[in-house]
Design goal:
This protein is α+β, with helices and mostly antiparallel strands. The chain has eight helices and four strands; from the N terminus they run ααααααβαβββα. The longest helix has 19 residues. The N and C termini lie far apart (52 Å). The relative contact order is 0.11. It is a peripheral membrane protein.
């Protein structure tokens, strides 16, 4: 069975448990924090995957690191360690966040711009593009990328809206060199 399917099953189980306990928002916050910890500390992931470390050592590290996490989140992580599924933790987190976003009518998106966007600009982009995605709003992450020259490029899931100067120049170039224009 693929790791993605297994991660989805754990995420679904944790999501259902969160709904039953009415603490989905708390679990989501904890999982976002966990994802940030994993992304900022690559050594943690290596530690949890290390074959010479015992399950109890891995659990002890998580126990000491995740004080204050809900019992649902904590027990799910302990179960993953017990079953030697540490490699799917981040996938499980991502699937859980997708489920909560769907429940709330929200989508995570990345907007690329030449300079940092203000909160007001992010809000206007969210209001403009959320209905196109069938969502109430977008959680925008702004990435500054000077290579786009101007405008913005928005990525929501696997859809890209390219209103950047670089994108327009690339489209013009394709039109000029395409065999249909000769």
């Amino acid at each position: 069975m693929s790791e993605t399917i297994i991660a989805k099953r754990y995420a679904t189980a944790l999501f259902q448990l969160g709904q039953e306990q009415s603490n989905i928002d708390q679990i989501e916050t904890e999982l976002r924090t966990l994802r940030d910890i994993f992304q900022n500390n690559k050594e943690l992931e290596k530690f949890l995957k290390h074959p010479r470390l015992s399950t109890s050592q891995k659990k002890e590290l998580l126990n000491n690191s995740l004080k204050g996490f809900s019992k649902e989140t904590f027990n799910t992580l302990m179960l993953l360690v017990d079953r030697h599924r540490e490699e799917i933790i981040l996938d499980m987190v991502d699937h859980f966040i997708l489920k909560t976003n769907d429940l709330k009518g929200i989508a995570d998106a990345t907007v690329y711009s030449v300079s940092p966007l203000s909160d007001k600009e992010k809000q206007r982009i969210s209001e403009k593009f959320a209905p196109k995605m069938g969502k109430k709003s977008l959680n925008l992450t702004n990435v500054v990328e000077s290579s786009i020259l101007g405008g913005i490029r928005l990525r929501v899931g696997n859809r890209i809206f390219d209103g950047s100067v670089r994108g327009k120049l690339n489209r013009m170039e394709r039109e000029l060199v395409s065999p249909n224009n000769r």
